[in-house]
Amino acid sequence: MNRKLVCFNCAATSSPIWRRTLDRKNNICNACGACVRAIPIVMLY
After folding, report:
1. Which domains does the chain have, with CATH numbers?
2. Which of 21, 24, 28, 32 is the most exposed place for a label (fewest CB within 10 A)?
């Protein structure tokens, strides 16, 4: 399973762990996922 993922927030294409947005519709990288857990308003969506 070799998917080409792109972060919905920052457009990163490489991440050690991929996460989902709070609405579970889009992929986000690990760094953006950590930010949304700390401060949910930071995300662009």
Report:
1. 1-45 (3.30.50.10)
2. 24
Instruction: Tell me the pTM.
Output: 0.73
Q: What share of the chain is helix, strand, coil (3-state, %, to 5)?
A: 25, 15, 60
Q: What is the pLDDT of residues 9-31, one digit of tens each?
A: 999 999 999 999 888 999 999 99
Place of tokens 């930010």: 35
Report the alpha-carbon distance of residue 25 to residue 9 in Å, rounded: 12
As a whole number of angstroms, the distance between CA 19 and CA 30 comes to 6
The answer to whether the CB of 20 falls within 8 A of the CB of 43 is no
